[in-house]
């Protein structure tokens, strides 16, 4: 083909994926291919509560094992595009740590829930239904985007505009509603719900903030009640405050005192919720700049394609 008439290559929307995300995407594809070649492998890779002991490794492998083709397609696309936004802000190490820790916590919660439901209902299906998939981590990623740019608006189906901070809540509501009408989807529901909660738990209390050396995001804008409508918050805040004091307040006081971040009884900049707000503003600006750059590159690609078309016609 003549170079003049060669169609332009996409340089923006389908580029810029990180090496870590591409490697994890390859793991997801390879895991799905392995199940297609050897179906019995699902007993060793997926989370089957009755077999978790002694096959304890499925607490880790279940999150990276997709049993269906639509599942692996959604997981790979979500990982690549969301990872392209979050990893540059969090850093590769923290991004990978988030995936590993949240995946393990999700598996632990599903295992405990399945065992509990079995003892309550005596239905063996809770023990022998294989549960796996990366959708729990994707749900946690949405919480990370909520933390960084909560007021950014997205257009759903070109009709409805919704702020990013409500996306995890909307996903949870839709997942619960669908499970009532599509029984097969009920197996995905615990993973989605635990993914949202464990993603928030990790970011709220345990993610290390490199600018201060402290952990978590104690701001009110990222509290547990921020996932719910305003009228429910007076009911949820007193309960959530108990966990804040146990998991967050004591840690922040200890770290502040040990690192000299308290002066005259007041926290220095970077050790209070104001710093968390500034961090979100920086993250939102970085995300918006990246999105704007991609839109500009896409527009340039279209113009370049049009100019190539004109040249080819003239030739």
Short descriptors:
315 residues, 11 helices, disordered N terminus, two-stranded antiparallel sheet, two-stranded antiparallel ribbon, disordered C terminus, mainly alpha
Describe this structure in words.
It is globular, with a radius of gyration of 23 Å. Helix 5 crosses helix 9, helix 7 crosses helix 9 and helix 8 packs antiparallel against helix 9. It has one domain: Rhomboid-like (Rhomboid-like fold, Up-down Bundle), CATH 1.20.1540. The chain is 63% helix and 4% strand. The relative contact order is 0.11. The protein has 315 residues and is mainly alpha-helical. The protein is built from eleven helices and four strands. The strands form two sheets. The chain has a two-stranded antiparallel sheet with strand order 1-2.
Quick overview:
With 315 residues, the chain is mainly alpha-helical.
Lay out the secondary structure.
Elements: H1 19-37, H2 42-45, H3 58-61, H4 69-90, H5 92-121, H6 125-128, H7 135-148, E1 153-156, E2 160-163, H8 167-181, H9 189-205, H10 233-259, E3 262-263, E4 266-267, H11 273-314
Antiparallel strand pairs: 1-2, 3-4
Helix pairs in contact: 1-4, 4-5, 4-7, 5-9, 7-9, 8-9
Strand and helix order? HHHHHHHEEHHHEEH
Shape: globular
As residue ranges, the low-confidence spans are 1-11, 254-271, 311-315
CATH architecture: Up-down Bundle
Strand percentage? under 5%
The overall number of domains is 1
Question: Please, how many helices?
Answer: 11
Beta-strand segment tally:
4
Radius of gyration: 23 Å
> Could you report the average pLDDT, rounded to the nearest whole number?
79
Largest sheet: 2 strands, antiparallel
- So, the CATH homologous superfamily? Rhomboid-like
What would CATH call the class? Mainly Alpha
Q: Specify the oligomeric state.
A: single chain
Spatial strand sequence of the major β-sheet: 1-2
Distance between the termini: 13 Å
CATH topology: Rhomboid-like fold
Structural class: mainly alpha
Helix content: 55-70%
């Amino acid at each position: 083909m003549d170079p003049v008439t060669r169609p332009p290559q996409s340089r923006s929307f389908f580029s810029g994926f990180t090496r870590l995300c591409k490697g994890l995407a390859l793991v997801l594809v390879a895991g799905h291919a392995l199940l297609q070649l050897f179906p019995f492998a699902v007993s060793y890779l997926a989370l089957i509560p009755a077999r978790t002991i002694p096959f304890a490794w499925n607490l880790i492998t279940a999150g990276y094992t997709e049993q269906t083709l639509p599942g692996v397609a959604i997981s790979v696309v979500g990982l690549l595009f969301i990872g392209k936004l979050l990893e540059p802000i969090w850093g590769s190490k923290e991004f990978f740590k988030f995936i590993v820790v949240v995946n393990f916590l999700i598996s632990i919660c599903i295992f405990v829930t399945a065992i509990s439901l079995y003892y309550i209902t005596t239905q063996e299906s809770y023990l022998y239904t294989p549960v796996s998939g990366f959708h729990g981590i994707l749900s946690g990623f949405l919480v990370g985007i909520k933390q960084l740019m909560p007021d950014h608006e997205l257009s759903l189906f070109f009709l409805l505009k919704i702020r990013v901070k409500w996306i995890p809540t909307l996903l949870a509501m839709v997942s619960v509603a669908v499970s009532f009408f599509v029984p097969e989807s009920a197996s995905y529901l615990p993973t989605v719900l635990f993914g949202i909660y464990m993603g928030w738990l990790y970011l709220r209390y345990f993610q290390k903030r490199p600018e201060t050396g402290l952990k978590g995001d104690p701001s009110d804008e990222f509290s547990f009640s921020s996932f719910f409508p305003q009228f429910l918050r007076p009911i949820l805040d007193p309960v959530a405050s108990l966990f804040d004091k146990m998991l967050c307040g004591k840690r922040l006081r200890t770290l502040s005192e040990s690192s000299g971040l308290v002066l005259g009884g007041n926290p220095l900049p970077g050790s209070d919720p104001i710093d968390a707000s500034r961090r979100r503003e920086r993250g939102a600006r970085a995300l918006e700049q990246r999105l704007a750059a991609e839109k500009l590159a896409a527009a340039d690609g279209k113009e370049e394609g049009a100019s190539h078309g004109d040249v080819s016609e003239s030739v």
